[in-house]
Amino acid sequence: MLSTVLLGASALLLGGSDAQRSDHLPAVAAGDLVLALAYQEQRSRYDAHHVETRAEWASGSWRLTGEKIQVLDGHVADMLVVSARTSGSPANAEGITLFLLRRDAPGVRVARQWRIDTRAAALVALDGVRVGAEAVLGEVDAGGALLARVLDRATIGLTADMLGGMTAAFEMTVDYLRTRRQFGVPIGSFQALKHRAARLYVETELARSAVMAAHRALDEGADDMQAARMAAIAKARCSDAYMLVAHEAVQMHGGIGMTDEHDVGFYLKAARAAEIMFGDAAYHRDRLARLQGY
User: Fold this and answer.
1) Residue 188 has what pLDDT?
2) Cβ(99)–Cβ(136) below 8 Å
3) For 184-210, how does the pLDDT look when each residue is reduced to its tens digit (9 = 90+)?
4) What region does 128 belong to: left with phi over 0, alpha with psi -120 to 50, or beta?
5) Same domain, 113 and 19
6) How does pLDDT run across 36-49, given as a tens digit for each residue?
7) Which of 42, 162, 215, 221 has its CA 20 to 30 Å from the CA of residue 111?
């Protein structure tokens, strides 16, 4: 869902032409089309506008050359949305264009990447891939703003997934504190563990409030600036909270929490992967400050 609906379909909805939307969105809704957004590069880190992949217009078509990393579901996608630089230098937000192309197009090479969570990703290499003018999503050189809008919506969607993960890890831990007995009593009766569990509850509920506010803002038609602010707030809060809850969940489970046999370890891996996806807490706090004019 993250790659196809929140990333790929969002790009089509926000930037696609009427023809592009009518050609592809029904197949997405029917579950017959998998989309993937290829925007990250080796030196981009969290800056989606750092694009070195080039697109040059020649002989009536665009020629794309470059490499993308961590393309979610890129190895199984039917179509790719690719960011490429059509003008300017790699660090500029302007001069970026989004292209829609088939994964099996000549010149596209895909290699699966393995992640610590359950999501799959791929390396995508573009070696002189030719596409026509109809492959452009939005306007030429204006893809940077479109990409930012797509990522803000995907970030807000991801925070809902993170909230679900930390809630599950917290509930699993509380259940363990109630049932695990030591010295003849449940370990949840120990004051030190009560305090730690209470802190996790507070952090989870604070994250819940941020996530709900961000989703409500989108539902009520927030403009791009407001959506960006809410995405930054929710992601910063969820990144910190999910990591805290996951770490504490493992610690309070004791030795069994360190084993692959127990589900609590999955949430720690999922938290670590989600923490850095679309930018970690420090990145989004800094981004919020810049959006606020500081």
Assistant:
1) 86
2) yes
3) 998 888 999 999 999 999 999 999 999
4) left
5) yes
6) 999 999 999 899 99
7) 162
Measured distance CA(291)–CA(294) in Å, rounded: 8
Q: How many domains in the chain? A: 2
The CATH number that applies at residue 246 is 1.20.140.10
The span from the CA of 21 to the CA of 140, in Å, is 18
Q: Which domain holds residue 21?
A: 2-139
Amino acid, res. 66: G
Q: For residue 262, what pLDDT band results from cuts at 50, 70 and 90?
A: confident
Are 126 and 201 found together in one domain? no
Give which of 171, 205, 186, 196 is closest to 248, Cα–Cα.
Answer: 196
Q: Which residues contact 131 (CB under 8 A, 6 or more apart)?
A: 61, 62, 64, 99, 101, 105
pLDDT for position 187: 84
What distance, in Å, lies between the first and last C-alpha atoms of the chain? 35
Half-sphere exposure of 50 (CA within 13 A, CB side): 9
